[in-house]
Amino acid sequence: MDSAAPRFSAVGAGAALELRGVTRLFGALAALTDVTITVRPGERRAVLGSNGAGKTTLFNCVTGDFPPSSGTIRFFGEDITHFPPYERIRRGLRRTYQISALFPGLTVRDNVYLACRGVSRGRFSPLRPGANDALMHAAEALIQAVHLTPVREQRVAELAHGQQRQLEIALALAGAPRFILFDEPAAGLSPTERRELIDILTSLPAHIGYIIIEHDMDVALRVVESVTMMHNGRVFKEGLPHEIEADPEVQELYLGAGHE
């Protein structure tokens, strides 16, 4: 394995997300060990690795679902290591999950509106939204951004799987996020749906940075500018997409020896 220091992990000022020496233990099992990663504002980063590499645990530490056993996490310069998830959300951190977390009995528009309402100051207001409600306008804009305008009045349960994944991205965009964690957004998508996903991700506003966990290398490497490879809970390699794709050790461990 490459013993050189990862190129993108040097801790520096002005980072959107900094992990320093993050370790997560589950009893005697170390799911993450001494992980140090730095992501710049607006940067799009892929975190790749085989099952069990520690990718989702990394996300859980960043979002506060499972705080690290040791190490620190800073978000735009602020130490959020011990913040509860809702405080991280208030600061502009968002996440999607491998398993859809939607309201299947409600329409697409209602799902997005509730997401916008949930991160607004007036979220507990008993008043129904009117025709000129600012949050409803925001919801409509997000629906358009993820290419769901034709099905905005459909119930989520009636959507195709790919459309549900698009809806999850709309929910993550509610409330002007500064950084998003995408957990396997291409899972289960058809080739056509993958192309739609790539178009949506590459069209996001430039100031919104993100990290994407993805097993589909063809999707992941087309929507990011940097890559972190993980192995056994540690950072294994970091580089540009074409460098990672061409790396012999990466091909052997993750893509198969016959990959070209």
The DSSP helix count reads 9
What is the number of E strands? Answer: 10
Q: What is the CATH topology of the largest domain?
A: Rossmann fold
Order of H and E elements: EEEHEEHEHHHEHEHEEHH
Q: So what's the overall shape?
A: globular
CATH superfamily of the largest domain: P-loop containing nucleotide triphosphate hydrolases
Give the termini distance in whole angstroms: 20 Å
Total of domains: 2
Q: Indicate the low-confidence ranges by residue numbers.
A: 1-7
Rg (CA only) = 19 Å
Secondary structure category: alpha/beta
What is the topology, as strand order, of the major beta sheet? 6-7-8-3-9-10
**In CATH terms, what is the architecture of the largest domain?**
3-Layer(aba) Sandwich
Question: What is the beta-strand fraction?
Answer: 15-25%
Average pLDDT works out at 89
The top level CATH class name of the largest domain: Alpha Beta
Largest sheet: 6 strands, mixed
- Share in helix: 25-40%
Could you characterize what this model shows?
By secondary structure, the chain is α/β, with parallel strands linked by helices. It is built from nine helices and ten strands. The two termini are 20 Å apart. It folds into two domains: 1-92 and 177-260, P-loop containing nucleotide triphosphate hydrolases (Rossmann fold, 3-Layer(aba) Sandwich), CATH 3.40.50; 102-172, no CATH class. The longest helix is centred in the middle third of the chain and has 12 residues, at 134-145. It is globular, with a radius of gyration of 19 Å. The model is unreliable at 1-7 (pLDDT under 50). α3 (108-118) crosses α4 (134-145), α3 packs parallel to α5 (161-172) and α5 (161-172) runs parallel beside α6 (191-202). The protein is 31% helix and 23% strand. The strands form two sheets. Strands 6-7-8-3-9-10 form a six-stranded mixed sheet. Strands 2-1-4-5 form a four-stranded antiparallel sheet, with helices on one face. This is ABC transporter ATP-binding protein. Involved in beta-(1-->2)glucan export. Transmembrane domains (TMD) form a pore in the inner membrane and the ATP-binding domain (NBD) is responsible for energy generation.
